[in-house]
Amino acid sequence: MRTGIFITGTDTGVGKTIVSAGLVLALRQRGLNVGYMKPIETGCPLVDGEVLAKDARFVREVTGIRDDIDLVCPYRLKAPAAPSIASRLEDVHVDMNYIVDQYFQLSLMHEIVVVEGVGGLMVPLNNNDLVTDLILALGLEAVVVARPTLGTINHTLLTVNMAKMMGIGVAGVIFNGFGKEAIGLPERTNPDEVEHFAQVPILGILPWLKDLDYNALRAGSLLSEFSERININSLLPKDDEY
Ligand SMILES: Nc1ncnc2c1ncn2[C@@H]1O[C@H](COP(=O)(O)OP(=O)(O)O)[C@@H](O)[C@H]1O
Ligand SMILES: [Mg+2]
Question: pTM for the full model?
């Protein structure tokens, strides 16, 4: 039984958090009990003496998820750097087994858990493990979030092919932020080109939403745009095939 889906991206800042929030909302609209996990978040500011995980806060706020923050985001690190570096500065060891345990707890509480990665696939989490090791340890398929703009074919093919090489299933690609920059030839042609060469489904293209505000914790039209434009049928929980 699929119990989760891992949201990775071609880079940091491509829209993993927004896509994760949209996916939680869209899956819930289908009647599912959905959880969210951001196993490691770096660049967390200190607010009123608390280390604030902003991605986890955004998704919890706009989806109404109330699971304990220590389950949703067990590693909240201050330095705006890769987890391996940020954790070293705080003398914290990022432990894959601990993350898998917390994920297991969440998966008992929900029919499906949307897990947001950190940066892209080749980001180090500690001295030994990359994001790919985490995806494999969790046993999840990945969705790749990509930019729609010039350069994305290269980044997306690198990401999809690395996932496949490592034995990670790629459920599909979501292009995010369409229309943030002028829409030209690359934006119109990149999805078909990626689909042809990556040989994975394009799940859809999410526009840049002017009424969405990450810092003000406002989702705006995220649910309606996401459910209209992104095909989540292949992401629904399914029994394993034998
Ligand atoms: N489709 C979108 N519409 C409006 N703003 C977006 C959209 N996608 C991303 N953003 C904004 O861009 C920034 C980076 O997106 P985010 O989801 O945090 O990226 P990542 O999680 O990959 O680092 C955030 O401030 C977010 O609000
Ligand atoms: Mg994020």
Answer: 0.97
